[in-house]
Design goal:
Blueprint lengths: L1 H21 L8 E7 L3 H11 L6 E7 L3 H8 L9 E5 L3 H7 L2 E2 L15 H6 L1 E2 L2 E2 L2 E7 L1 E5 L12 H11 L14 H10 L16 H14 L8 H9 L5 E4 L3 H7 L4 E4 L14 E10 L6 H11 L2 H11 L2 E2 L8 H4 L2 H9 L4 E2 L6 H16 L5 H19 L1
Parallel strand pairs: 1-2, 1-3, 11-13
Antiparallel strand pairs: 3-11, 4-11, 5-6, 7-11, 7-12, 8-9, 8-10
Helix pairs in contact: 2-12, 7-8, 15-16
């Protein structure tokens, strides 16, 4: 009996010891912060190096997602599948804000911390008076020319000077100026140059406005001195082969043409003679957005954002990828001062227009693209085409809402 009791007590002691071990506190490991992106390798390399400063407490994983925007729509509310953050242009933030998957970045950083940012970037990152993105860099279209053909004295200061140059030089397989004239992203600069817009701030299409009609009618005469097909590949080829003297293109275009041996230079956008306003293209602001699924990682997210706000990081990105830093102070760096491309984008930010981040813009890209095709390539009447496009946009937006 005593032997059985001893065995029972021993087993009970062993069981209690096991429970104590199971309940002992476990040392917390590093916090992993996952950031989805669609960026080029040069940008990712700079950010990965910068985020190493947070190791070993915080491990940042930059995961490339080619179909990022659509995937976020599907899994943005899923704690298991969604990332903690994503790095992308500002123009989709309204969609995700309306879906309820985004957290304002001002939940993690003070509003006055953005007082040193280029105003354009803060404006772009704001939707319904709420800041949903931490801007890191921005890009905008620029007026570029091949200095082998277009001399500095020939660089047009106004659109009529540009047109006169095109009339003189568009011959024998050469074009004085080419652009992606029937793509809304590119044609928007001409619309803004007439004080117009594709979409108002309250999400109402403006395709039948007087400003848009005037802009498209005026732009048409330039289009008639360009090739019929002017998609990116066409413009790229013409400029690389020295057959186009000037173009409007993004900073990503420069390395390609320089590699082809083209001496490309950058100049301010021509001013529209009729309005006194410059051709003012859209600007895209790239930055970090925080999903609500990351609410339990607040301290780690704050530290990740703090790294992304460092001027040294933005300067390194500018050096690696020729993008324009979001913070004003970066432009005092000696290397950045000497970078013609980055400084040109900084200057362009004075008149560039942030791409609308309204959900209705998804409709407008398609409708405006069809409108431009009808006018520029189909020879259709400007007024009638604008009226039809306006009704189409209104109908599609109503259905979307």
């Amino acid at each position: 009996m005593k032997k059985s009791l001893a065995i029972l007590l021993a087993l009970l002691l062993l069981l209690l010891t096991g429970c104590q071990k199971a309940e002992a506190p476990i040392t917390a490991g590093p916090v992993t912060v996952t950031i989805w992106h669609d960026k080029e390798a040069e940008v990712v390399a700079v950010l990965e190096e910068a985020f190493k400063a947070l190791e070993p407490d915080i491990h940042v994983v930059l995961e490339k997602k080619p179909s990022l925007t659509e995937t976020l729509k599907l899994v943005g509310n899923d704690q298991k599948s969604a990332p903690d953050m994503y790095l992308f242009a500002h123009d989709k933030l309204s969609v995700y804000a309306e879906m309820g998957i985004l957290t304002p970045v001002t939940d993690y950083i003070a509003v006055d911390a953005l007082s040193s940012y280029v105003p354009l970037t803060v404006k772009a990152a704001t939707y319904k008076d709420t800041l949903y993105q931490l801007p890191i860099y921005f890009e905008t279209l620029l007026f570029m020319y091949n200095e082998k053909y277009m001399k500095e004295s020939d660089v047009p200061k106004t659109t009529e000077e540009l047109y006169a140059y095109m009339e003189r030089k568009t011959q024998h397989g050469h074009f004085g100026f080419v652009e992606q004239h029937s793509t809304p992203y590119y044609a928007s600069g001409w619309v803004h140059g007439f004080g117009g817009e594709w979409l108002s701030k309250d999400g109402t299409p403006q395709l039948y406005s007087e400003e848009v009609q005037k802009a498209l009618a005026y732009h048409l005469k330039f289009v008639q001195l360009m090739p019929g097909e002017t998609e990116y590949a066409t413009v790229n080829t013409l400029f690389k082969e020295g057959k186009a003297h000037a173009t409007i293109a993004g900073p990503w275009f420069v390395p390609t043409v320089r590699a082809a041996g083209i001496r490309v230079k950058i100049a301010p956008m021509p001013v529209v003679d009729e309005t006194g306003l410059p051709i003012a293209p859209y600007a895209g602001v790239q930055g970090l957005h925080v999903l609500k699924t990351a609410a339990d990682k607040k301290e780690a997210i704050q530290k990740v954002l703090a790294v992304a706000m460092e001027e040294d990081v933005m300067i390194a990105l500018a050096k690696a990828s020729a993008c324009a830093p979001a913070k004003e102070g970066c432009y005092e760096n000696e290397t950045i001062k000497e970078d013609e491309l980055v400084q040109a984008m900084r200057a362009a930010a004075q008149s560039a227009v942030p791409m609308p981040c309204l959900p209705e813009m998804d409709v407008m890209w398609t409708v405006a693209g069809n409108l431009l095709t009808d006018i520029n390539m189909g020879g259709k009447d400007v007024q009638q085409s604008c009226e039809a496009a306006q009704q189409k946009a209104l109908s599609l937006i109503q259905a979307m809402r």
